[in-house]
Amino acid sequence: MTESGRRRRAGYDGTGPGAITPDGCAVELYERLPAGDEPDVVERLVPAGAHILELGCGAGRVTHALLDRGFTVTVVDESPEMLERVRGARTVCSPIETLDLGSRFGVVMLASFLVHAGDPAVRQGLLRTCRRHVAEDGVVLIQREPADAHTRVPRERRVAGGGVVRVVSAEPAGPGVDAIVCEYDFPGARWTQTFLSRPLTPRQFEEALAGAGLAVESYATEDGTWVRAVPVRGSGGA
Asked: Rounded to two decimals, what is the model's pTM?
């Protein structure tokens, strides 16, 4: 079954050429988006050559840059069409929330602001998967939204390849959750995406981590968007 044949998640939508995932992501778009500074941040925060479990890898936007820097990467995504674009990594097709590989990793990465999932139960499932798969002496890297992500709208930025990424609006879609509308204009193609995102104060974020048996070791970037979290000893990995 193609992505377009799968049921779209409530509150999520996407338009444009090619396959669209159930959460509104366009596969061809994510092939075009550049890695940005994420690989630089990861390289600074984890040991050289570490084995990284990347949760929600998409089309390998960050994966390929990490492989080029000498890391071993196991990637997880629920979209087989996304995983078809990934080269050089072990791929696992699965929802993140239910993943259980039966093994631990020195580094687990939950990027792309996935921790801001609109459904709190999904967020906790994501974090429990991080805890279940991180070694007791390992680290979980989590990418948070900037503090003004839902208020500094509309905004746009240009990316490599001649693309323009716009955040068009952020409107309430329920208690504590917003519907975010984005547009992506590239030469010869245009996509849109609507998704749900739940802002988290530092306290709310840390409480969510604690509920999954994790704790903040450090806010690792000046803007606080990247966090090094560690397992709480005795919390287990269930």
From this structure: 0.95
